[in-house]
Each structure stands twice: as C-alpha cells, then as structure tokens.
What we know:
Keywords: Cytoplasm, Initiation factor, Protein biosynthesis, Repeat, WD repeat. The chain is an all-beta fold.
Amino acid sequence: MLHGHERSITQIKYNRDGDLLFSSAKDNHPCVWYSINGERLGTYEGHQGVVWAIDVDWETKRFMSGAGDNMLMIWDVQTGKALGKIEAKTSVRTCNFSYSGNMALYSTDSTMGNPSEIFIIDVRTVDSSFSTNDPILQIPLTNAPKATSMVWGNLDEVVISGHDNGDLAQWDLRTGKKINLVSEHAKSINDMQLSKDGGFLITASKDCTAKLFDADTLECLKTYKTERPVNSAAISPILDHVVLGGGQDAMEVTTTSSRVGKFDARFFHLVFEEEFGRVKGHFGPINSLAFHPDGKTYASGGEDGYVRLHQFDQSYFDFKFDY
C-alpha cells in the first residue's frame, strides 16, 4: 500500500518500462514511486489545485500534469523541475503524450461561459517560451458536451474523446474535424484506456458498464456489466482479461461498509464478458486502475487516498477458461 496522498486519488499511470508508477490526487502534488518496492521517489511541487490528469512520455524523460488551477505543467521526471507550463481558461481535465512524444493533447472543462476545448500542442522544445506558443490545433466543443477523457488513436493521426453524455468521438488531426461519433453509453465516460498494441479501447462509464471498442472504427465489441458506476477499466497486456474498478459516488460512500463488496476490483474475461475474480482492499470507490506493462501486477488508486499494488499469484496465470 502506498500512502503519499492526503486526499483521494484521481489517476495512476505506469511508465513504459514499468519501473515507475505515477499517481495524482486531489491534493496539489503528483507523486512518483518505485513500483517494485513501493518506495516514494518524490513529488512534483508547483500546482495550486486538484491534479486531474497525468501522463509520462515514452522515454520517461518528461511528465505532464493538468490541474484545477487551470495549469498544464511539464516536468523533468528525474529532477522534478517544472520545464514549462501553459495556462488554460478553465481547469485541465485530461492530458496525454502522443506515441511519438512530439505532441501532447489536453482538454479543458466548460465553466464560466468558456466551452470545453481540446488542444494539441508541440512538446519537442519545452522552455520558458512554452506558454506563449500557439497550439498546433484547437478544437472548441461549443455545442457539444464536455470531454471527460481522451486518448491518442492510431499512429497519432486521430484523437478519441469520451464525453459526459456517453458519446465517443474521433477527431482527425489534419483537418480538426470530427470523423466518427458513437453513442453507446448512456451516461458520462469516466475513463478510457488503450490495449497494449493500441487496437482496442476500453471505456468505463457511469452507466454501470465498461465497453470494449475497436480503436479504429469505434465499433462496440464487448460490454462488461456491473451493478454500480465504473470509474476505471484496464486491459491486461498479456492475457485476455480486463479489470474494472468503481463504486458509487463519493458522497454516498459513508452509508456503505467496505464488506458489502462495492469497492472491489473486478476481473472479467475479455472475450466471454464473464466475471471470474474480485480483489478487495479499498475503503472507498476505486478511481483509477493500471496494469503493469509486464502483466504480472496491477495497481489501483481509490477515494481513500491509497494506491495499492497487487501481485498476481501463479494460479491467476494457470487459470484457463473452458470453451
């Protein structure tokens, strides 16, 4: 159990090698941990508000965080120095490095008369002039619902956004136009994660389901049903498994005991949509899940402010579905 945050976790992410785990919470400093022994390396100090989203680039050189103080900051992973920052009009809800690491995307909330917007920026040179550079592309979602989660699509040519009415949209970066829209979910999409090869996309929604999409065509392939809102979902890099984490809204937590099993991480088979395991542990809803890149451990971050690292035992790998 990693306890470095006073308030509830908003997002956790492994780097590509899997030796570091990054976590952000509703306090102002994202943390970085050694995933092997849970030792905390340090924190990134500089935000003045809730850190909603984090991402780390392919080489683990730079780390990006977006927060409720309307700031997107880019840090040096090793030293914890802030390399550059961009001030947005409203709070930054999502941020992602592209696969190439040359570009990044971030999206903002719709508040105070400002629409939710998606920005694509160039992050090849991050220095003091970074905040004044114009974005490569700016997509205002004027009449559309706000973007709640984003991922880069195939070959950095498209981005995929999930919205708070359950829509999933695909945007072409060259034209800045919407090329695809599917409305499979009934309520807000809380989290989206790609599979290891980028071919599949799993969405976690407030309508108590997680769905598996083809990342190119946005065709809905599978649906994993639960009885309560799903806050996060992840696809195993080595097996045909997905893990779902959720629970009810934070305000209803005090009325339920952790024994009821509402705060478990639930494992489903990717193909058969069948639940085959649960992991207890958190004292509140799970807000973020991530598989280690080697598929042998996974991490979950909860409303209780703890990040838990779970190691799978041998029986998990031996377990085969009969079909």
